[in-house]
C-alpha cells in the first residue's frame, strides 16, 4: 500500500489545448494518504473519472506526475501500479463461473490454490453470492454481475489502492446500502487506500472519512463531512452538500457586520472588507424564524418533509430556505429571521474568506 501524490497534474482530451476551458482537469496538487477511505464527489462531467483513470494508469495525463510513495509511476501501466478498479458497469467473463471470475485476479498473480479457494469463499460471502459460485456468469442479472465486479475488485489483499467509479449505479437500493456497509467494513479490516467516486452526497458522506469535492475540473475542497457542512470552502460545496443547500445572499461586509440590502446582519467574526462578488452563506439549519427578533422575511410556503419542515421564504428578493426542527412551532406572526452569527460564512468570488479575528471587534 502507498500514499498517492499528484503533482501539478492536469489533463486535456484535446491535442492542443489553449485555455482553462480546454482542460477536463485543471492543474491540481493532491495527496491521498495511505490507508484512508476517500469519496470523490461531484456532478456529472466535473472530471471524476478522468482523475480516477489517471491514478489507475488507464489515462496518461497531459501534464504532471503521479507518485506511489516515492516511486514515480506516471509512465507505468495499470498492472505495474498494482491497483484494483471497479467500474460503473459490470466487467465479467460470461463463460466463466462466478468462482472463476472471482479467482481470476488471484490466479493471474500466481496465488496458491488453497489460498484462492479460501479467499474466494470469503469474498462470495461478502457479496452474498455463495449459492451461485458454480453458475456461469452468463444469464445472471446486471446487479449480480456488478456484485461479481465488486468482488473481483476486493479479492486481492496486496493492492496499493482500490478505486471505485460509481460502482453501485446498477444495484438495487437495498443492496446498495448493504454493499456500501460491506465496503466500509472491508476498509476497516484491511486498511486499503480506497477512492470511491460518486455524484451522490449521501453515498459519499456515509462511505468516507474524507470527502474530496470536485467542480468543473477542480478539487474545490477536501474535508470531513462535518467540515463540508460547517465551512464549505466554495459556494458550490455549500450548494451541493445539504438538503436543501446553503443559502447565499449578496452582501457588503465591514468587519464583523454584513449588509444585505442595507440591513445589518451580525457575523461571528471579523472579515475586514473583502472585495469582488461578496456573499454570505448560511445553512437552512442555522436560520430561525422569530416573532420579535432579527430581520424581516416573507414566508411563502411550508413543506413538511417528515423529520422536519422546510420553510421557503423571500428575503429582500432572494429565496431562502429555513429548516424548522421537530417540536419547533411556526406561526403566522413569525415574520422575522435570525441567522446564527457563528454559522455565517463569507465568500468573495465564490471562495470562502477566512475570518481575520474572532469576536465582534473589527
Ligand atoms: P465525471 O466522471 O465527473 O462525470 P469525466 O471525467 O467523465 O467526468 O469527464 C470530464 C470532462 O471530460 C467532460 O466534459 C467530458 O465530456 C470530457 N471527457 C471525458 N472523457 C472524454 C474522452 N474520452 N474524450 C473527450 N472528452 C472526454
Ligand atoms: Mg464518471
TrEMBL record:
Keywords: ATP-binding, Cell membrane, Membrane, Nucleotide-binding, Transport
SMART domains in alphabetical order: AAA
CC per GO annotation: ATP-binding cassette (ABC) transporter complex, substrate-binding subunit-containing
Top-level lineage group: Bacteria
One MF term in the entry's GO annotations: ABC-type ferric iron transporter activity
Residue span, ABC transporter domain: 4-241
CDD domains: ABC_Carb_Solutes_like
Pfam families: ABC_tran, OB_MalK
Family: Belongs to the ABC transporter superfamily.
Protein's UniProt name: ATP-binding cassette domain-containing protein
